[in-house]
Each structure stands twice: as C-alpha cells, then as structure tokens.
Amino acid sequence: MAVLLLAETTDGVLAFDATARAVSAVRGLGEVTVLVCGDKEAADRAATLDGVSRVVFSSDPALTHGLVENVAELVVSRSDGFAHIAAPATTSGKAILPYVAARLDVMVITDVAEIVDAETFKRPIYAGNAIQTVRSSDRVKVFSVRTSAFAPVADGASAQVEQVGGNGDRGVSAFIENHLARSDRPDLTSAKIVVSGGRGLGSGENFALIDRLADKLGAAIGASRAAVDSGYVANDLQVGQTGKVVAPDLYIAVGISGAIQHLAGMKDSRIIVAINKDEEAPIFEIADFGLVADLFEALPELIEKL
Ligand code: FAD
C-alpha cells in the first residue's frame, strides 16, 4: 500500500504544520510520498518529516498560485500505484481533491478525523455532533484530513527528494491577484493559544481588549460568527462550522455563548477557558475553566496580572 499526500503550500512555500499533521494521519496506511507544488527548499523541508519515504516536487510556474485544475492534473498524473491520495482539509485541499476524485472516477471522503483501516474512515457530520464511519470500496481512496485531529509528526528525517515536471497551464482558470492580510500573530489554525471574542465585546473598538490579551500570551485571535457578521473583525478570523477548525493547547472564549456551530470549530482544544457574564451560557458545558464575569472588568484585570 502506498499513499500520495499533497503537501499544503502557499505560493510555493510549505505549510509545515498542516503537512506534518497530515503525514501523522496517513503514515499508518503505508509508504508515504509527499507531492510538493513548490521549489527545492519546500521539498527539502517536507523531506525532514518523520514517516515520509519520498518527496516529489514540481516547480512548474502553472502551480505557483495553487490553481485547482493545474494542481489536480499534476496529482492525477502522479497517482499511478497509489492506493490512497490525501491532502489536508484546508481551503485548497478541499477544492483540489474533489477534482482529483472526479478525474479518477472515485468518490472523495472529506474531513477524515480518524483512519480505522485502509478502507474505513471516521469523519464528523452535523457540525461535529455525530461521527460517521465510512467504508469505501473504491480502488483509490481520495480523502482530506482534518489536521486538528492529528498531532504533527516530528522532523529530523531525510527522505529522498525528486524533481518532476508539471503539466503546464490547463488554461481553465487564471490567477489575478492576492489580497493578503499581514499579521505578526501566529496562524490561527496552528497556534498553540487562541483568544476568541464574540458578540459580547459589543464593538470593533472593544475587540482591542482581545488583541491586548493575545499580545500578552503570544496567541492567535479568533472570533465567533456573530462578531464577524457585526463587523468587529475580518471573516478570516471566524472559528466554527463555517469558519476555521482549531485545536490549540489553550482556547480562551470571551463573550461567546457557545452555539454548536462555534463549538464545531474549537471543541477539540486541549484546555478551554470561557469568560461570560451569563452563568447559563452553553460554553460553560464544555469549558475546563469558566469565569462568570463581565468581560470589561475581567479582561483588563487579567491583562494587568499577566
Ligand atoms: P451570542 O450568541 O450573542 O453570545 C454573546 C455572549 O456574550 C452571550 O453568551 C452573553 O452572555 C455574552 N456577553 C455579553 N456581554 C458580555 C459581557 N459584558 N461580559 C461577558 N459576557 C458577555 N457561529 C460561529 O461562531 N462560527 C461558525 O462557523 C458558525 N457557523 C454557522 C453556520 C450556520 C449554518 C448557522 C445557522 C450558524 C452559524 N454560526 C456560527 C452562528 C451561531 O449559531 C451563533 O449565532 C454564533 O456563534 C453566536 O456568536 P456569539 O456567541 O458571539 O454571540
């Protein structure tokens, strides 16, 4: 059995954490070949991941911006001999794998949170309220990995690295431009600490309290959908069913009620702390530490003490 794992890259740079978690998920299935759309540096970095047997990379410029059709064609062209084809369930992985599966005429299994055996996978459904067990008889299993469900593998290995060509530009879609929000903060999906604010903050200006607490802790910032919809922060900070899924060591939810759609994105966090003035708020049902308090009193005090 052999696994082809599409590494997560952004403009040719390896997203190390997401790729390391995906390797951790698939390594039990057989020999792992990591496919990198990027340069030799990205490939060499992927080759250090424990459990990787081989890294294949392509620096074809048609792949640089991760256009789905171009990347998917590369995956399909390299798929011979693999029983499993996987990628992290990121925005790009979720877009590319269905195309790959369609080209191979098999189904795609999304958001795999546990691999039971070579044919059987567990994945959350109903916003994480139920776990579905899926058995596939397809000749190739194409699936995306919920990275927050797997600890990253260590690095220190040195797998063989091989450069391959690309398939060029399919001419189906074109890259226009990227608008990137620059931040010195850790990436939300891989941060060890996340401080999230909800509607309880009351305004974008008050969200500065969340910034100050995150600064003290070296944390990433998250938000509930209500905070995003109210315009307090940008929507790339949204945590939950229709936002990002995170599982940090510490998740601090401030002024967030704990709707199931929010919990779907953070309930696997190692330690959950909730600050809410309503002692009946559902967030307290999953919190390890709960503080019933007015956030406008508790946060300045906490920041001061830290
Ligand atoms: P609220 O539910 O309004 O809670 C605010 C909390 O702040 C309350 O508990 C209140 O007691 C507390 N509070 C108020 N003032 C203070 C104060 N001074 N001090 C302390 N506490 C205070 N939501 C997400 O978050 N992520 C998603 O991905 C998501 N996806 C969704 C998908 C679908 C299809 C649907 C239908 C909904 C989705 N939602 C999502 C929305 C979700 O149902 C909730 O509406 C949302 O999570 C509520 O956000 P909130 O907790 O910030 O706001």
UniProtKB/TrEMBL annotation:
Residues binding FAD, per UniProt: 199, 224-225, 238-242, 255-262, 276
Cross-referenced Pfam families: ETF, ETF_alpha
Any single biological process term in GO: fatty acid beta-oxidation using acyl-CoA dehydrogenase
Cofactors demanded by this protein: FAD
GO MF annotation terms: electron transfer activity; flavin adenine dinucleotide binding
Cofactor note: Binds 1 FAD per dimer.
Domain of life: Bacteria
Domain Electron transfer flavoprotein alpha/beta-subunit N-terminal, first and last residues per copy: 3-179
Family label: Belongs to the ETF alpha-subunit/FixB family.
Its job: The electron transfer flavoprotein serves as a specific electron acceptor for other dehydrogenases. It transfers the electrons to the main respiratory chain via ETF-ubiquinone oxidoreductase (ETF dehydrogenase).
Protein name: Electron transfer flavoprotein subunit alpha
